[in-house]
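lol forgot to send this yesterday, sorry. struct tokens for the thing we talked abt
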């Protein structure tokens, strides 16, 4: 997906956006309205109408994205056009206003539009950066494959623990049931591993924080160093190997959840701001015609 958004079909939408920009600037340059340029001149109305149509079309993208059966071009092409024309919109609207702003509903609409555009830029950054980093970070393995591999490690760990004393079985099964990260959006975003494990210390069991399987691995190393039976020591060593493997698999999984949370939170910003913009824009247009 990366690159292809911006470079779609030889950047045809970049050229279209540049054309829109050049035509708007030329019209603004040539226009001689006999008053300071503003939204109320003939050109002002023309540019305002173009801006409003662009905004409605940009907002329509939310609907378009979900209509996979539509034959009106690919979603990728739409996104490419969305990005470039969304940026050209800023210029069209600036020329519409004649660079005049005040404390009014018109300027509120403009401010909301700028917020949508800036949040859009951040969205493109996330889109371009993350799909790529995701595949680098896992060597091209996807999330469900990672989960399958972790489950496989768990099954093998349980099998080995069954040949060891009860505290090892407790370690493995509590480590699996108390694996915890990403229960909430906030936790996913912070990419914190909140896992715990039950460890036998003396005659008692204690619940211990186990980020990165660290506590479990330390405990196993300690048990192994004290173990006199080479066969048992070998099993403990095997169990440690499996947990290290699990740690290696968990890292990209946690990162994957973090990136997904970023994208979800971003849409939480871009889409409601769009709704706000549409309301403000409608108020702007109504206000203009009421005072006309
Ligand atoms: C059908 C579309 C539009 C029409 C008919 C329209 C009309 C107007 C008019 C008549 C003015 C001059 C108001 C005055 O001088 O008091 C104006 C100013 C302005 N318009 Fe629009 N407009 C449209 C679209 C937009 C859009 C899409 C935006 C931005 C989101 C926008 C933002 C502004 C701003 C910031 C001003 C300057 C306000 C000021 O001078 O304080 N307009 N518009
Ligand atoms: C006023 C201008 C804009 C409006 C009204 C607007 C509106 C929208 C809407 C409604 C969606 C669909 C979100 C969804 O429902 O999933 C969307 C998606 C998106 N927009 Fe904008 N947008 C604007 C400008 C921009 C700009 C300037 C950029 C980039 C520089 C941008 C980047 C994106 C991206 C990357 C998506 C995500 C597409 C996806 O989820 O597949 N937008 N926008």
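and heres what i got for the seq, position by position
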């Amino acid at each position: 997906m990366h690159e292809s958004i911006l470079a779609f079909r030889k950047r045809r939408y970049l050229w279209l956006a540049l054309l829109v920009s050049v035509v708007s600037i030329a019209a603004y340059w040539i226009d001689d309205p006999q008053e300071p340029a503003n939204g109320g001149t003939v050109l002002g109305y023309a540019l305002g109408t173009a801006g409003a149509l662009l905004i409605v079309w940009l907002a329509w993208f939310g609907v378009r994205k979900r209509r996979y059966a539509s034959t009106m071009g690919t979603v990728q092409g739409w996104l490419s056009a969305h990005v470039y024309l969304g940026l050209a919109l800023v210029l069209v609207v600036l020329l519409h206003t004649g660079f005049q702003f005040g404390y009014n509903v018109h300027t509120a609409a403009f401010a909301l539009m700028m917020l949508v555009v800036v949040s859009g830029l951040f969205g493109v950054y996330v889109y371009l950066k993350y799909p790529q980093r995701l595949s680098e970070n896992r060597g091209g393995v996807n999330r469900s494959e990672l989960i399958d591999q972790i489950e496989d490690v768990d099954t093998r760990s349980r099998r080995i623990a069954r040949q060891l004393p009860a505290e090892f079985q407790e370690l493995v099964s509590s480590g699996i049931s108390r694996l915890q990260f990403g229960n909430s959006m906030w936790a996913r975003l912070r990419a914190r591993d909140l896992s715990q494990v039950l460890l036998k210390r003396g005659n008692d069991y204690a619940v211990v924080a186990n980020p990165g399987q660290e506590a479990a691995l330390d405990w196993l190393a300690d048990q192994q160093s004290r173990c006199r039976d080479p066969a048992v020591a070998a099993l403990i060593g095997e169990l440690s190997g499996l947990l290290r493997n699990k740690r290696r698999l968990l890292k990209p999984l946690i990162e994957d959840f973090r990136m997904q949370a970023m994208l979800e939170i971003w849409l939480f910003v871009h889409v409601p701001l769009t709704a706000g913009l549409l309301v403000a824009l409608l108020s702007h247009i109504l206000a203009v015609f009421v005072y006309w």
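The longest helix spans residues 230-291. anyway ping me if u want another try
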